[in-house]
Structure formats: structure tokens, C-alpha cells
Amino acid sequence: MDQKLQERWGEVMEEKKQCKGCGGALPFLIGFVAALIAGWVLFPNLLYSKKVQPIRFSHKIHQEQGMECASCHVFRDDGSYAGLPKNEKCQECHADVVGSDPAEKIYVEQYAQKDKEVPWLVYQYQPDNVFFSHKAHESFECKECHLEVGKMDTPPVYYENRLSGYSKQTMKMWQCERCHAENGVSNACHVCHK
Amino acid sequence: MKAKEFKVTWGMVIDLDKCTGCGACMTACQVENNIAPMVDASNKMRTLSWMLVYELSNKKSGAEAEVAYLPRPCMQCGNPACVPVCPVIATDKNEEGGIVSQVYPRCIGCRYCMAACPYHARYFNWEDPIFPKGMEKALSPNTSARPRGVVEKCNFCHTRFMQAKDKARQDGGDPEALADGAYMPACAEICPTGAISFGDVKNKEHKVFDLAQGKDAFRLLEKLGLNPQVYYVSKREWVRKLGDNYAATGKPGAAKKHS
Amino acid sequence: MDRALFPDGVERCSFGKFVLWMGFVTAFFLFGLYAMLLIFYKGIVVTGLDNYFGFGLWITFDLAVIALGAGAFFTGFLKYILKIDQLKNIINLTVIVGFICYSGAMLVLTMDIGQPIRAWFGYWHPNVHSMLTEVIFCITCYCLVLVIEFVPLVLEQKQLNKIPFLHHLAHNMHVNMALFAGIGAFLSTFHQGSLGGMYGVLIGRPYAFREGFFIWPWTFFLFVLSAVGCGPIFTVLCCTLMEKMTGRKLVDFKTKALMGKIAGTMLTVYIFFKILDTYAWANNYLPSIGMTFDQMFYGVVYGKWLMFTEIILCGLVPAIMLITPSIRNNPTLLYTAGILDCIGVSLNRYLFTVQSIAMPILPFDTWQVYAPNWAEWATSGMIVAYGVLVMSLSYRYLPVFPQERGLNR
Amino acid sequence: MGLDRRGFVKIVVGGVAGTLFTPVIWKSLDDVSIWSQNWPWIPRLNKGEVKAKAALSKLCPAGCAVKVKTVGGLPFAVAGNTANPMSKGGVCPVCAAGAQLMYSPARVKSPLKKVGEGKFEAIKWEDAEALLVEKLTALKGQNGKIAAINGDETGTAGEVISGLLAGLGNSGYYMMPGEKFVAEKGVKLMGGSGQPGFDIAGADLVLMIGADALDSWGATVANQKAFAATRPTGAAATAKFVYAGPVLNHTAAVSDKFLPVPPQATVAFALGLANLLINDGAVSSASDFSEYKALAAKYTAEEVEKATGLKAENMKELAAMIKAAKAPVVIAGASFGQGGGALDFVAGASLNVLLGRVGSGMTLLPSAPKAVAGVSASDKDAGSFLADVATGKAAPGALIVYEANPAYALPQADDMAKTLGNIAFKVSFSTYMDETAALCDLILPAPHPYERFDDALNPYGVAKSTYLAGKPVVKKPVMDCKDPVDVLLGAATKLGLSLGFDTYADVISAKAKALGADLDALTAGGIWTGDAKGGSLNLGASALAKAAVVKTDDKTLAVAPVSNLAFGTATLATPPANLLAIRETELVGKELLVQMNAATAKKAGVAEGAKVKLSAGKGELKARVHLNEGVAPGTVAVLLGFGRSAWDEYTKGKGDNVYKILTVSDEAGTGLKVWAGSTVTVAKV
Q: Which helix (H) or strand (E) holds C247?
């Protein structure tokens, strides 16, 4: 038994010697760095699929017409928030093509006149189990939570999480909770869930 | 765990002498909260019935026979048996108004809360919500649809509470001090005989304030010390007696609180 | 043909016979497996559980096996902490039994919850006020401890042990076993208690609710005591069963009797407090909420006889038998007492689980009867089969019983 | 230097270590858990603005004025219309399920043509209408060849149908037998005319004999509101309610007193009460008072106890209550809203005459102006008609069924269905695939109340002339359906006769104009009310004198069908959202539980849970027994609305249909077909 052990031990020592060549920690580092690159660079690209809005809507142009966020994104009488405007609203101006922008033409011809609502992509999509009151958050600037699209001529790319189906910008629960905590607002479940 | 105190305490006062047992409250509840229709719904051992109307009888016959109907929502106990037992904080009683919450995406479905609740107010989703083709177009926007395997219960139509607060904000009112009637659960709203009154039992402006203290008012299983926020009213003594346990001696036990 | 794998100097049945036996048990295992997959696919709607009985056979089974598996931590505690050296003869077995019971219980729990994918929420979003959280924590941690205690035993398998690294590993683990035994004892005491606490805190269930000390209802302590009061003797019963099946002596009777003495002592303490507790509950608590002792029972299915069987026939009687040397030292009587003991404790778990929720609390409600259906039985059976398989393999290939060579020379 | 095993291991270890410092594992775990919280096969909620639109929900017989809640235009819930003085914000359990009923699996999705036993094929509307016209053209002008059955008592559609028939030279326009029908006959017997009404709101004592006024009789919600107004929570009640009927039903549950009266003993009970009142000094100026007095005198305490099982003191107590009341009113009706004899009505109504409450407590509604020229209300009932068809007295070649379900909701239902099946061409205008539609050769899907114009004039029971009208809530129907009246009007034009309208909407606005009501106000959820004319009535003594004396025998039990509005109506099977309301003491699995009290069960030799077969005439009903002390002696109570053979998975084949065991008899004196209080034999199986 001891004899055998001795021999095995010898072999082990042998291997150690041979291995001097493949430089101690180097391979480890290679693996480590490779993983970091994969994790931080490749993974996000794999995780999200890119989508573009059905129409190149330019907030910039509309703002230049002197419009406020609230001229289209309005509160209803019951205090609920209309969110993205429907055709009804857009057609107040765009019943027919009024400008030269091809995007407008597309809207008018393919949606407004066909009385078809535009399937806008919502950057801050929240699931059914979340109740969010814009009214309660009225005092904040839109851009504190939303992408600052106001000045954009082309709406930003929409990143959809392949696993959860949420938008990349969807606010996570911990973010809501942190802000509530900082502002001394209750974090009870039903404050946000339904 | 010490029971939490609230400035606003949403409570229900149900007049059992007015309830005809028609079932409109159950229907309204099922509609408001997106409970899928159940094929064998008379088997109450597998149904989801956030609001359930019990039939009480005085066990007499002929011209002496009497029955009463008792609608049973969640009692929203002041000292809930279900909240402290939940291992994953899927339910809490933390918000102004004292409504006991239930969060479906958090619940793991261990059913410990069901074992804890003596009112059978908590229900387990035995199956995924299957609506007949097309009926999902008639889903209410007020309650998210639950997958199978989670526990759910009445929450006084909490989304209506949130909506009432938004309305108040819109009209420049105080969302923390809603007027009587500004917030009504579906069952209270639809009841054709107005047997269900709803409001803040701590607010003198609300009619439930007095009703809850009326001489014929009582609560279910008061002696267990769960301190429910749902009150019942009946002029019939046999009905009131059926609201709580009485020792075989007929003498009520000492009103003893455990918390 | 697999002789080379046997522990040194012991005899085992022929490979063919062994395969036959394993096949027989595997059949049960597979049937249970089918039921389990069905449950994961369709949800627990396929079981006999319903709105009244959220807890049923599964929870009862869990609580029972965890109590019976308590032999592991308590014996370990006595062996490594209190240094009762004689227990080394059976300590390995207690570890294996414990491991089987706990891993099995955890498997059942994942089936039992409605959303198995969210099982880990117990750690991610723990509610520190919930006894169940404590149970989830301790059981999983303690199961790991049992794995650690089991590993060296596996490594000591004749062939594996030839590999020096594993040999040394096993050795070193043995050296530090006292530490794990300590941790195990701590964890176990707590979750055994928490399991009791789970029921004790049910303020809405008069049958189970108990006042207590600080945050712990009396049931907390009663469950710990009852567990250690039956765990050791259950191991003895397992051992004896194996001896009967294999026809070989595995542990000397002195050790068994000692285990019996240990269990008996704890059981006596337990039953003393259990009777006190029951008396106080019936005469103090129940009247305080306007209920009577009689209201707690119904017909035959939920009759008083259950409680008397639990406390007197399967509690007091075995306790007396086990602490009386003359009785304890008679094998037949020792085993009889052991069986009664285990039945009693399992019955206790059943009553706390089923009777307390079968009882109508709303005065206008009625008693409900619960019957587990095939899916629950099959899956529970699967756990038992799983245990038998693990035990068979261990017995055949691992040096579980240090005394075996001597006793069968 | 190549990469050997050891180096490889190092790289892997490094890779793993590195991964721990990237979001890969943690982010994936998080997202997977999120996925598990929003499984793709769980339905998503609808988004959009929430509105409440006024609608007339004619799902219940009386019709509820409601607000339909919509999200993004899709109806999802129903709330009461507080502005409407009739429903005052209340909703009945059936109308509460309205939104979901729009998508009921039982809805007829498109016109269907029968192509064999129980087989239908979907056809286009123009083909369907062509077929209808073709069949009618063939039989045009031959009286008796075309018949129509109308199940809608209140809608103006009836006028169009009878107008069409008249135009086609046919007089075969029949109503499904409702209470209104019987009551009007009764009023005639008392020397008056018109539809009777009852002022519950204005009464301080309401005695309901049979009439389940607080759950399924008359304008249920209005009645419930009137009741509620007298019962302020936490304060003293301002009116007394007494229910005398065969079953301790929902109405009895909230009444101050319940008196168990077997269904066949109504007359005895009423006249027994009259006797006590007269002995207490009640007098009436009615011409036939002396005759009435003499008749009532026959109903002594003993007689009443023999017929009803009620003790003398119960009756005395009741008489005293009535005497003490300032404004008592007596409502008589069959406990399930139909089939009652005119005499049952007269007996109850005569008490109002005796108490001098005609014109105040009990009113008579003036006949309303018609929208369609030259039509008269029908006084012929579908039951007698089908009986004639069965015996060959009538031989129609074509039958139009509108909002009616005769194959299910007439006594000896199976026979009725068979008879119906023998008619050469049957067309059903129905929203749902009901038992009758399933028998028809052509099914023309009617819209759901939220998809159509409709109106309701004088729902039975209202104290004043009342008119409601509603317009569609949704832009377009969810199924391929057309308004039946529009279809009939179109057919009329093709048949070369003009009724003066193109659409039902036109008809309704004409009706509103005729009544002097503002249609826009009505469709916005308003109401039009006219006044009630008093009119003098006699006590109907001569008719009552002919009342058959109750025969009691030990072998049979009186059957009391119990109507529970939540479980649906003759024309509507239990809505999916109402299934929860069914108790485990009413239906177990697919087995109906019939209710009787312990004494009756003992007499019939059955016990709790026993499987029984109730049979009468050619019909039989299978069920289990449930003991219920709230059922009158010698009576077996059976819930209505079960035993559906069509409809959907939620209702089909559940329980059994009590209509099958109801037997028709000719009422002594009036010759009216009655089936309230019919008897059955009970056998164990």
C-alpha cells in the first residue's frame, strides 16, 4: 500500500514539472478576460432583440410647433393617463397629409385613413400586475423616468428582452422601491401591484 | 407581531336582514377580478370565490323556519393570521386603509396562509385561468390574471381605491381623505338591496362609522382576536349568535385578544 | 461479480438477487416518478387537495419523516459533542437515514408548492416572521450538512478510498465531523421546532394554536422533544429491519438498547409536557375563545380516540417501556415500543396538519373530510422507494456498520 | 508549448471565475423569474380609456337599466344606473354577467340552416333571409298556416311580429305564458281591464302570496330597491313584508314573516284570510261583497289548516298585522312567475279590493298607444297553441319563434319539443343556441342587448306605466348577427307589405313619440312614466266560487318550481359568471337536488341524499333529495333552469328540467291552462 502511494506521488510530481511550461496563471487570466468580454459585450447583444417604431415619429418637429408633452400625452377626467395618443388625437392635425415628411405620409395613408391604431412600442412597458399612477407622479419631470425623446428627430431603438419580453428601459421594482423609500412613500405591495 | 394602526381603515358593514342572497355580488366580484368561469362551480372545494354567500338556517321548521344569507369577502383583519405566516412576503398589511394585499407574481403557492385563515377567504388557483374563446376580450383592466399555483383573495377591489385617489388628485381633492362613496368595491356597488355599505370606519363623515358601532353590529369569530374590518348587522339574535363561537354552555367566552 | 466493491471482509447476496430486489423497488419509484412529472405538468389539481385542505398527506409525510430522521442530528450530537463513543456503531446508519428523510422531504415540498420555479424565493424574499421561512432555511442547510456527513462514508468505499486524495479528504472530514455535528444539531433543533411553531402560531385554528415563550409557541418545543424522542429508535428499527432482511447481524443489541434508552428518556420528557400542554389547552385556551374540548372532535374520522391513541397508547406506553430497563432489554419489547413510539409521533403530525384544518371554525360551517388520492400516495411512495434504493446501495457497497465483521465472524 | 490538460483546466476555471463578475448568470436568473411571472399563455388585460355607457339590459324578464363599463370600447363589467328611477343603481345577478355573456360560447355565431338531426351549416344572411321569404310567400294568405311565438312581453317587437302576421292574413300570434298574461285574465274576471300593478314603495305592509317579488317576480330590482328603502341599515324598518308561499325562498329570507303555503292552496289561504278580515269588520262597497263574504265564510280556520297546514294563530297574527297597516298591498302570483291560475290571482287581488287599496296599492295600467298601426295585443298563449298542434286542432306550416324557448320552458317540455319538431318549417330568432333553436330549420342569430336597439314597456308589476329604451353599446356585434325586427321588416317588404318602418330603431322612436317620451333621454339611461288609472274592480266572487276544492292525497306531492334569477331565465341558461351562485345543496356534479321537509320525506319514504324519480304525465325527472325545513308540507321544491340540452359546457346536461314534470290542467271556471300546483309521484331509484 505505502509502496503504491509512493509511486502515485512520484507521478504527480512529474506532471507538476512538465507543466512549468504553460506559465502559471496565464491561462487562468486568458479565461477570465475572455469571460468578462463575453459577459459584458456579447451577452447583452444576444439577450436583447432590436426593434424600431412602426413610424419614424419626430418629437423634435412637434416641439418646434410649440407643443408641450401634455398636448398629446394627456390626463383624462378620471385622473387616469392616456399615455400614447390614439388616432383620434393625431387626426386633429393629420387627418390628411399636411407636411412633406414621408413618415407622415405613411401614417396618414396606412393608419389614419384606414382607421387603424399605430402599434407603438412602449419603452417603459410594465406588466399587468403593476398599477402605476402618472397622476401621483405628476410633480416629476417626464425625463426622470422616460427616455428624453423630446428633442429627438428619430425615436430611439427599442430593445426587447428575449427572455422576459420586457423593454430594456422597463423600470425594475428595486428602482421604484428606492425612489419611494427616499421620498418617504409607502412600499406596501398594493401601492404598485394589482 | 404587533398589529399596525392606520388613520384610514376601509371597512364593510353588511346588513344581513337586507341580503336576499341573489348572488349579484358574487357575479360582480368574479367579473371585476377576472376569475375564469368554472364548469363545476357548485363544488365549493375547488372554486375561486373571493366573495362567497353562505346560507344560514335557524334549524326550525314550518312557519318558524328562517334563513339568512351571509356574504363573506376577505375580512382584511387588523391582526391577520395569514400575513405573518407567508414565507415570501407575498402578502402584507402595510398600506393606509388596512387592506391585506396579495401579490401573485411573488406567491409560491405553499398555501400556509390558507391553513391560517379561519374564514376560508383565501383561494388557490388549481388551474390556469381558462376563458371560453373570445371571453378574454371582456377581461376587467382592474386585476391582473393569475397563473395556476398561486393564492389569491378579495382585496376590496383595491384598484378602485387607486383610481379613486387619482380622481381626487385630478379634482384637486385630498387622495388620503376620500369622500364617502368615492371608493366602492364591485360587490357594494352592485348590491340591489344596498345590503353592503363600505367606507372608512374611522371617519365620522362615512356612514359606516356609525353602522359599525350599531347595537346589532358584530364581526365573525371576534374572540379569536383577528380584529376583522368587515362588520355584519342583523336584528335577528340567532343570526348574531352564529357569528361567533359559543361554548356548549351557551356562555360567550371571555373576549381575549391574542397578538 | 461486484464483489470487488464490497466493504472489506463482509458477505453480500448474489448480484442477480440484488438486481432483482432493486428492480422490484425501482418499479414503485418509477410509478411515483410518473405521478410527480404529471404534477409538475398539470399542477397539483391532480391531487386530492382542495380549498379546505391546502395541507394534506404530503405535509404530514414531510413532518413525519423529518421527525423520524431526527436520529441523525441527535445521535451525532451525543456521539461527537457529548462523546458517547458506543454510538459509533450506528452513527453511519443514522446519517444515511437522516439524509434520505431530509432529501426526500425537500423533494416533496417542491412538488407541494404551486409554483416550483419560485421555490428559491424563500431565500430571495424571506419573511423573517414566518416559521416556514425558518423551516425552509434550516431544512435546506441541514440537508447540506447531511450531505457533508454522508460524503466521507462514500469516500471510504473500498475502491474510492484507494485514491489518496479522496482518502485524505475523507480522513480530514472525519476529523472535523464534530463541527458539522454541532451545526447540524443547532439547525435541526430549530427547524424541528419551527415545524411545530408553524402550527402553534395559527391563531385562527384553535386545534393547533398555543401560547408560548417569547416568539415560540409551546408546540415549538414539543416538536423538538417528540422528534428526538422517536428519531433514534427509528434508526434502530431500520437497522433491525435490514438485519431481518439480510440475515446478518449489523449492530449489537447493547447499542440498540442504548438508543432505545436515549429515545425513551426524551420521549418521557416530551409526553410529560405534551400532557400538561393538552390539559392547559383544553381547560384554559379553548374556553377563553368560547369553545369546548368536544368541539375539537367529530365522528370517527376525527374522533377523540385519535388523540388518546397518540398520547396514551403511542406516547405514554412506549415511554414507560423504553425507560424501564427490564422491558427495554428485551428485543421484542424494545422493537414494539419503538414502533408504537414512531406511530405516535407520526399521528401527532397528522392531527396537527389535517384535524386542525378539517375543523369548522365558522360556526355555520361543517366538518370536511379529506382523502389523499393516488397521486399523493404514489409520490410519497416514490420517496420511500428512493430511500430503500439509497439504503440498499449503501449497505451493499459502503462500510456502514463497523461491527458487522466482528458480529458475523 | 501546447495547451495541456492542466492549462485547459486553468482556462475553464478562469472562465467560470470571470463569468461570476459578469451579468450573465444573475441577469438570466432574474429574467427567467420574470418570465415565470408572466406566462405567455395567461390572458393579458385590455388597455384604454374606461367609460360607462347607459344600456337597457333585457337579459332578465323585466330588464335592468344599467351602465356598461368599457375599456378601449370593449364591455367588461356592469354597474347600476343610479340616475334611473326604476333600477336606482341596482343590478340583477343576470344582468351583472352581461359583458361576459356577449362572448358566451352558447351564442349563435352566424345564420344556421338545419342539414339533418342536430346538424347545422352556416349560411350567408342574404341566403337565410331569402329562405325565410320563400317559405312565408308559399303560405301567405292561408290563415292558420303561419304562426309566431313571442317570448318578449315588453318589447315593441311584438307589435311588428303580430303586424307582419296580420299582413300575411294570419292570426296565429302567441305569447309565452307569463304572469302578466294570467293577471290580465284575472282582472277581466273582476270586471276590470288592463295590466295590474303593485305599489310596493308606497305600502307599509306587503303580503306576497306566491309572488317571489324580491328575487324573480315582476320588476325585481325595482322591488328590491323599494324593499331596501324601508330597511335603513341600523334603524327601524318602515314597512312589513310577509311571504306566503311553498318555499322559504330569497324573498321569504328577508321578509318579516314566512308562511308555508302549498302551491295548490293559494285560494284557500287568501279566502281564509279574507274571512278573518271580514270577521274583523272589513267591508267593501264592491257589488258582489255579500256573495264574497258568504264564500269566504266557508274557509274557516279548520278548512285553511286542512288545505295549507297553517295554524289558526298564524293566520290571526297575519290578519292583525294587516289590520294595523295603513297602506297594505297584496301581491298574488305563481311562485315561479307563470302557470298560475287566474283564480289564484283573483283570490289575492280580491284582498286589495276588500282592503280598499285598488288604485293606490294595486293599480291598473292604461293600455298604451301602439307604434305599428292596427295591431292588438295577443291574448292567446303558446302552451294552448302547441297543445292544439299536438291534437291536430292547429296545423301551421311555418312557425316564427322570437326570444322564446317553448321547447324548454313549457309544461311537459318533452312533448312540447316533439310537437314543435313536427312543424314543417321553424325559424328561431335567438341570441343563443337554446333548446328551441336546436330544433329549428333556420336559426337567425339575434344581437346581444349591448349590440341592439330595444325597449321595454310596462314590465309586469310596475305601479305606473313605465317605458325604457336602449341603444347599442358597442360599435358592431361580436357575432355575425342582425336585429330580428330589421330582418322581419325586410322580409315584409319583400312579401309586398309595408308596416311603415325599415328598422327596429324607427319602430322604437315611433313608440316613444306615441307615448310622448324623449327617446334620447331614454337611450341615455332615462325613463318615461305615465300614470296609473284606478278603475273599480269587484271581488271576483262568482269566479272564485267555482274554485276547485284542494284534494289532498298521500301518494302524490305538489311540485313547487323555484325560480332563482341568478340561475337564468326561460330564455337564458345560467350565465358562466353566475355558476358560483349554485350551492352544493342545489347541484352536486350533474345531479339536481330536490328539496322537501323531513316530514314530507318520511311520508314519501325517502331520506337525505336518496336518488329519486319524480314523474307526472309523460315526463319524469331524476334527482337526489335534500331535506329543507323551509318547504311547505306535502310539497317538493325543484329549482328551475337546469337540465339544459343545448347551450354550452357550463350548463348542458346539468341537473334536470322541472318543466318536464309540470302537467297542464284546465282551471275550473276559467278554462285557463294552469300548471302551478301540479302534482308528482316520487319513487326511489
A: none
Same-domain check for residues D349 and D230 = yes
Asked if residue C407 is part of any domain, the answer here is no
**Within an 8 Å CB–CB cutoff, is residue B66 touching chain C?**
no
Determine the average pLDDT of the residues in A42-58: 92
Nearest-Cα distance to chain D for A166, in Å, is 9
Shared domain for D491 and D477, answered yes or no, is: yes
Shortest CA distance to C394 belongs to which of C150, C171, C167? Answer: C150
DSSP class of D468: E
B251 domain-assigned: no
3-state secondary structure D169-202: CCCEEEECCCHHHHHHHHHHHCCCCCEEEECCCC
Chain B neighbors of C118, CB-CB under 8 A: 88, 107-109
Q: Which residues constitute the domain of residue C294?
A: 3-249+256-400
Which three cell numbers, joined as nine digits, stand for D384?
A: 294552448
Per the prediction, chain D carries an average pLDDT of 91
**Contact yes or no for D444/D426 (Cβ under 8 A):** no
Q: What angle do CA D84, D88, D92 make, to 5 degrees?
A: 110
- Three-state secondary structure readout of D236-295: CCCCEEEEEECECCHHHHHCCEEEECCHHHHHHHHHHHHHHHHHCCCCCCCCCHHHHHHH
The alpha-carbon gap from C117 to the nearest alpha carbon of chain A, in Å, equals 15
CB C155 within 8 A of CB C170: yes
pLDDT digits (tens, 9 = 90+) for D298-326: 999 999 998 899 999 999 999 999 999 99
CATH of the domain at B45: 3.30.70.20
Nearest-CA distance from C37 to chain B in Å?
A: 15
Q: Which of B170, B178, B183 to mutate to test the interface with A (most CBs of A within 10 A)?
A: B170
- Residue span of the structural domain in which D70 resides: 50-101
User: How many Cβ pairs within 8 Å bridge chains A and B?
Assistant: 71
Task: Give the per-residue pLDDT at A3.
Answer: 57
C-alpha cell at C254: 447493547
- The whole-model pTM stands at 0.93
Q: State how far the alpha carbon of B251 is from the alpha carbons of B224, B258, C165, C286, in Å.
A: 16, 20, 74, 13
pLDDT confidence of residue A4: 58
Q: Which of B81, B124, B147 sits opposite C204 (nearest CB)?
A: B81
Block residue for cell numbers 381605491: B161
Q: Please say if the pLDDT value at position D101 is more than 80.
A: yes
Contact in structure between C166 and C158 (CB atoms under 8 Å): no
Identify the burial level of A71 via C-beta atoms within 10 angstroms of its C-beta, where 0-12 means exposed, 13-18 middle and 19 or more buried: middle
Where do the DSSP E strands lie in B183-227? 196-200, 217-218
Whether chain D has a CB inside 8 Å of the CB on A174: the answer is: no
Which residues between 32 and 91 in chain A have a beta carbon less than 8 angstroms from any beta carbon of chain B?
75, 77-80
B2 part of a folded domain: no
- Please give, rounded to a whole number of angstroms, the shortest distance from the CA of B243 to a CA of chain A: 30
| Integer Cα distance of C389 and C396 in angstroms | 11
Task: For residues B95-109, give the mean pLDDT.
Answer: 95
User: Which structural domain, as residue segments, surrounds residue B200?
Assistant: 10-241
Residue C58 in domain: yes
Assembly ipTM: 0.92
Distance CA D246, CA D261 (A): 5
D476 close contact with A: CB closer than 8 A: no
What percentage of residues in chain B have a pLDDT greater than 70? 94
**Residue C104 within any structural domain of the chain:** yes
Residue with the three cell numbers 371608493: B183
Count structural domains, chain C: 1
Most B CBs within 10 A among C38, C41, C59, C115, hence the mutation to make, goes to C115
Set of chain B residues whose Cβ sits within 8 Å of the Cβ of C115: 107-109, 147, 149-150
B69 touches chain D (CB under 8 A): yes
Give pLDDT, residue A7: 59
